[in-house]
Every structure is written in structure tokens, then in C-alpha cells.
Task: inverse folding
């Protein structure tokens, strides 16, 4: 709830609080960070910067990272995870919920990259395929990356309750469902099957939530 100056003046006129208390409360509220879900330039910059960082660690990974080797990728990923987690804690303590949530998503997105580096270091990742091949052809080692991201996302969401953390969870669940169906279909991607899985997966989620709400009522 956003308290306005007029509401404070009404409270003073009704002798609920004194004029000095109203002025002190106004000063206090002005010093608090604005963390509400509003669409303004500051929040736009938050999400723009966050999506650039998240995209750089996921969609826009290039073969240049392969020069670091598997253990190098693991080390760099863990360093970024530590940096993102530290920033998230700092923003959380200061009351900046939105940038804290973006940093939490950044941490979750780095988990598949670290698992990829670990598989590469241990020799489980196929030779000649980089991180960009992750969405190219179906392989069983994808599941470790998806399950790792899912586990990290669930833990972070359970611990911190940032709404933006739902985004990587939804994407990971969708990819996991698609890959599982592809394995059932003989390790082949079928556009029609993929469309059906996506449609029914998106359809069942809201209806499952509605059924839970109905049972609770």
C-alpha cells in the first residue's frame, strides 16, 4: 500500500497522529527504496541490464569459452555465481527487491553452464560440440543441466520467494518436458509432437492451480 501526503493530512485532521509524526513519517518513507511493481525508466534499466547479463551467460555463449577448458568454465561460472549471490544479498538487505530477484535468476542461469563445464572436464561431453549445441541435437547429458537448473531454481525460490525466479523454472520445465518426450519418441524432434507437448503443458498448469484453489475453498 502506497501512503500519500493527503492520507497523512487526513490522519492528522482526525487526530490519529500528530503533525510532527506525519512529517517524520513522510521523511522516513521518502528515504525508502521504491520496490513496488511499477513500470518506470529505473525498473526498465534493471531488467535490461539483467537480461543482458543473463543472455550473455546462456543464449549468447560462444566457442571462445572452450579455450578455458572444462575446469576453467567451472571456475568462471562459480565465480560469477558467487558474485551474483553476493549482489543479491546486498540488494536484499537494502530493500531493492527487483534487482535482487534479477541477481537470483542470474545465479540460477549459471548452474547449467557450470554443469556443462564439469561434464566437459570429466570427459562426458561429446567432442566437437560446444555449449551452443545444447539445443541442437538431443543427448542424455542435457538432462543433468536441466535437472541442475531446476533444483537450483526450486531452492532459490523456496528460500527467497522472488517472483522473477519463476521464469527460469518455467523454461527449464518446458525444456525438460520436451526432451523427455523426444527421448520417448526415439531421440527425435518432431514439430507436431513438440507443439502438442507445449500446448498441453501450458494448459495443464493453470488448470492444476485452479483445481487446488477449488479444493481449498
Result:
Amino acid at each position: 500500500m502506497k501512503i500519500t501526503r493527503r492520507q497523512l493530512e487526513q490522519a492528522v485532521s482526525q487526530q490519529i497522529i500528530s503533525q510532527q509524526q506525519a512529517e517524520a513519517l513522510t521523511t522516513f518513507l521518502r528515504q525508502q527504496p521504491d520496490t513496488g511493481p511499477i513500470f518506470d525508466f529505473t525498473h526498465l534499466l534493471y531488467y535490461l541490464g539483467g537480461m543482458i547479463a543473463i543472455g550473455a551467460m546462456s543464449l549468447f555463449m560462444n566457442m571462445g569459452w572452450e579455450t578455458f577448458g572444462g575446469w576453467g568454465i567451472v571456475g568462471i561460472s562459480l565465480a560469477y555465481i558467487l558474485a551474483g549471490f553476493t549482489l543479491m544479498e546486498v540488494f536484499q538487505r537494502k530493500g531493492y527487491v527487483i534487482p535482487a530477484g534479477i541477481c537470483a535468476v542470474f545465479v540460477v542461469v549459471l548452474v547449467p553452464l557450470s554443469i556443462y563445464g564439469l561434464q566437459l572436464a570429466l570427459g562426458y561431453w561429446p567432442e566437437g560440440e560446444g555449449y551452443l549445441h545444447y539445443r541442437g541435437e538431443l543427448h542424455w547429458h542435457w538432462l543433468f543441466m536441466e535437472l541442475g537448473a531446476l533444483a537450483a531454481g526450486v531452492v532459490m525460490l523456496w528460500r527467497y520467494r522472488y517472483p522473477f525466479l519463476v521464469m527460469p523454472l518455467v523454461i527449464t520445465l518446458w525444456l525438460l518436458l520436451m526432451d523427455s518426450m523426444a527421448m520417448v519418441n526415439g531421440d527425435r524432434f518432431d514439430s507436431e509432437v513438440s507443439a502438442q507437448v507445449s500446448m498441453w503443458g501450458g494448459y495443464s498448469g493453470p488448470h492444476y492451480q485452479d483445481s487446488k484453489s477449488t479444493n481449498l475453498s
User: Anything to note?
Assistant: Confidence is low (pLDDT under 50) at residues 206-217. The two ends are 26 Å apart (CA to CA). Helices lie at 5-13, 19-30, 41-56, 69-94, 97-122, 142-160, 166-184, 191-216.
